[in-house]
Prior knowledge:
Blueprint: H1 2-52, H2 56-69, H3 76-92, H4 96-104, H5 116-132, H6 136-147, H7 153-169, H8 173-180, H9 187-190, H10 193-209, H11 213-230, H12 233-247, H13 252-268, H14 272-284, H15 288-370, H16 375-412, H17 418-441, H18 451-460, E1 468-472, H19 484-505, E2 509-516, E3 520-527, H20 541-552, E4 556-561, E5 567-574
Parallel strand pairs: 1-2
Antiparallel strand pairs: 2-3, 3-5, 4-5
Amino acid sequence: MKRQRLQFYLYIAVALIIIIFSCQKKNNDTIKAQSTKEKVEKLIVIADRFYDNKKIDSAFYYYNEATFICSPVNDAENYISTLNRMAIIQQSHGDYSGSEATIKKALPYAKYVKNQLHIWNLYVTLSVNYLDTYDYKNAILYNEKALHLETKSWKKLAAKNNIGVALIQEKKYTEALHIFLPLETKNDIIKDNDVYASLLDNIGFCYFKVDASEKGLNYMNRALEIRQKEKSAFGLGKSYMHLAEFYQKRDFSLSKKYILLSYKEYSKINYIDGRLSALKIIINNSSNKELKDYSNIYIALSDSIDEVRQKAKNQFAKIKYDSKHEKEENLKLKAYKAENELNLERQKNRNIVSYIIIVLSLCLILILYYYLTSKANREKIEAAYNSETRISKKLHDELANDIYHTMAFAENRNLSLLENKEQLLNNLDTIYSRTRDIARENCTINTDENYALSIREMISGFNTPNINLLINGLDTISWHEIDKTKKTALYRAIQELLVNMKKHSEASLVAIIFKETNKDILINYSDNGKGIDVSKMVLKNGLHNIENRILAIKGKINIESDLGKGFKVFIKFPL
């Protein structure tokens, strides 16, 4: 009873220490997340102020700074909404490819957002990009996604309207009418004159295109009346353009009058795309000097907008690059400052660990001194010690040096260079693989009815893009008739074969064949690796362990190999 009580107290002490450290870590993480969120929100406020004052380049800069320090998982709403604002700025300046690249950074983190409005804005911004770049299928796709979100009714109506606009661009006028006509009676649409006039104009244009001219003209004139009252230059430009197209084959002079009015309205607000569209129609309906004059205007306007958009695109790209470069420089400076703080923290942690080790050591000494006297317990302790020593040796021999060299590489190389970054990733992948191998070697083995599945999963775990593993006959073995000790030994033997293969053989193909006879289990292992000289082979480490395991279950093992001719192992043990 005393022994059990002491053990119980020991477990409680260890648990308390773990809980304290976990709580400290969680508190630190929480404080860090809150601190980052506050900085992000301050940067967003500054960026919003610049945006409202039409200082777009400064707004873009501060939005970009906010995304650099924002946590896309813990603060997904700020991250997504900020990227959306940046994408809208790029979109408004004609940088559609840049806008799409910016907004797509937000897509993987939409699942962390609770407020569906941010996702709706994300989808609609993407759809506008696709609409402006003539990718109408994707424009419709993302409006349909926006339509299925849990948002206010007017947002659903807006998404439906956007789908109709995309269908018009695809010249699917009948399908567009099916979208637009049910919206005509919606209160949210009717009470907004700009939206209602746009809807009526689109309906009229669709009717005109499906040869319902009288209906089409009626709707377009109703839209024009509303827009004339509202004095909306953009809306009037659209209405006059549709009417010009309507009268193009009916009344040439009236058509020309409307297209000139459209050009005039678009010029008031300097809407370049609208002016260019109007000029195309004017040019098609002009001749002689008038044709030359309008053609020159079109060329000059087209060249100027291309130049402006390219400058804006370069400007936004430069802001992103400069911010990234500045961040890297700041990190280097902070690294020097943090080094001293890190050393102090390490010393503090060493002291804490020392106290913990002393307390635990005293507890263990008391338990061992009073109660661990039986032979069985001594063997358990010795086995645990041997296991820990083996793991420690593996950690020291296989991982410590690699980690040290990787740290030195990261500190002394410029990681912004692609080759250095790839080398660092390769080093980390090697460390990860070795850690996983050690974990596999010391995991509990399932020897019940799921043994075949367990061994298959273990073997499949060594499958990589560069290594193909073939397993044959595994399910034909009567595993339930085999002793657990033999199954454990076989599992470990195959595991160590695969570990050796991965470390040394450079194989790209491995085959493991299982076969059962009346009295024995046969396993054939082969790979196409670089092989070894069997005459000079010295069994040690993994191969020595494999041989000992098979001999311990009264089995036989035979190794065949030669340099450049792969590696083969034949294992046989009785049922």
